[in-house]
């Protein structure tokens, strides 16, 4: 089994442009507040062949059959 490392994107500071670690809340250079990182996981990556195959299978999967009707109440006995 092969494990690929997570895709990590450095967060650029909106004030000075310096790249910062994705977990940083403030810029290491100027102290400006950084935006929340956009984290892409393997399950979100459309270029991952396993995700494309899973999406195709889910799109082609038939709908679940409907439940059978409940039985009718018994009729009262006749004399």
Would you kindly provide a written description of the structure presented here, covering whatever features stand out?
The chain has 79 residues and is mainly alpha-helical. It has one helix spanning 49-60; strands at residues 11-12, 19-20. It has a two-stranded antiparallel sheet with strand order 1-2. The protein starts with 10 loop residues before the first strand and ends in a 19-residue tail after the last helix. The mean pLDDT is 78.
Q: What structural class results from the helix and strand content?
A: mainly alpha
- Sheet with most strands: strand arrangement: 1-2
Oligomer: single chain
3D shape: elongated
Write the layout of secondary structure elements.
Blueprint (H helix, E strand, L loop, with lengths): L10 E2 L6 E2 L28 H12 L19
Antiparallel strand pairs: 1-2
Keywords:
about 80 residues; mainly alpha; elongated; 1 helix
Summarize the structure.
This protein has one helix spanning 49-60; strands at residues 11-12, 19-20.
